[in-house]
Amino acid sequence: MVKPWVTPSFKEILRDNCREYLDSNDLGKSKDRTAVVDRVAEEIAQVAAASNQVVPEMLNKVFEFYLLSPESCSLTDPRGQAVSTWFGNEARAVVGEAVSGKTKAKGAARRIITGKVWNHRTVAAELHQDRLEEFQKQFIEDYEGDGNPAMRTYAAALTALWDDLSEEEQMECKQTAELWNIAPPPSDVQQK
């Protein structure tokens, strides 16, 4: 989708800087990517001012702000955000790189998980549901605050359940959580 503020002259500036944007990053003390975005946004502002180009309403106030005080602009202002967003959405396609769902995370690859993510507490709630209900009934009886008592006491009841489990039961919950995140849980659990 073409952004309303990307005129042909702005698009040329953006396209010319896509490779530099993709090769940069903001890791560590060197903020190369922020510098690229700020420089490109400055170029766009200067082209708009020099050619008396009608700047779309979305960026008009921002460019006026930039021309009055360029040193105070950064990625936190809408101009930098608009340019940064454009690069994030379009740069890979412009330079011909395939866009994939994988992250560029260093170290172990991140798993993309759809559906429910299980942890030791959610598994404990599932496997020991009867004990959890007992704790929650006790907490609901003692509850004196505002709001729905069942919702307000659930986390405390789950913590009490976890603390009440033996080490073997806790270990079983942790191992089951790992298994259910890799392979689907049993059908009776899925149907809830």
Radius of gyration: 27 Å
Question: End-to-end distance, in Å?
Answer: 40 Å
Largest sheet composition: none
Instruction: Count the beta strands.
Output: 0
Number of helices: 10
Structural class: mainly alpha
Q: Give start-end ranges of low-pLDDT stretches.
A: 64-76
Specify the overall morphology.
elongated
Count of all domains? 2
Task: Lay out the secondary structure.
Blueprint: H1 8-16, H2 18-23, H3 32-50, H4 57-68, H5 78-95, H6 120-127, H7 129-142, H8 149-164, H9 167-182, H10 187-190
Helix pairs in contact: 1-3, 3-4, 3-5, 6-9, 7-8
Which key terms come to mind for this protein?
192 residues, mainly alpha, 2 domains, 0% strand
Summarize this, please?
By secondary structure, this protein is mainly alpha-helical. The chain contains 10 helices and no strands.
Structure description:
The protein is mainly α. The chain has two domains: 8-95, no CATH class; 120-190. 64% of the residues lie in helices and 0% in strands. It is built from ten helices and no strands. It has helices at 8-16, 18-23, 32-50, 57-68, 78-95, 120-127, 129-142, 149-164, 167-182, 187-190. α3 (32-50) crosses α4 (57-68). The two termini are 40 Å apart.
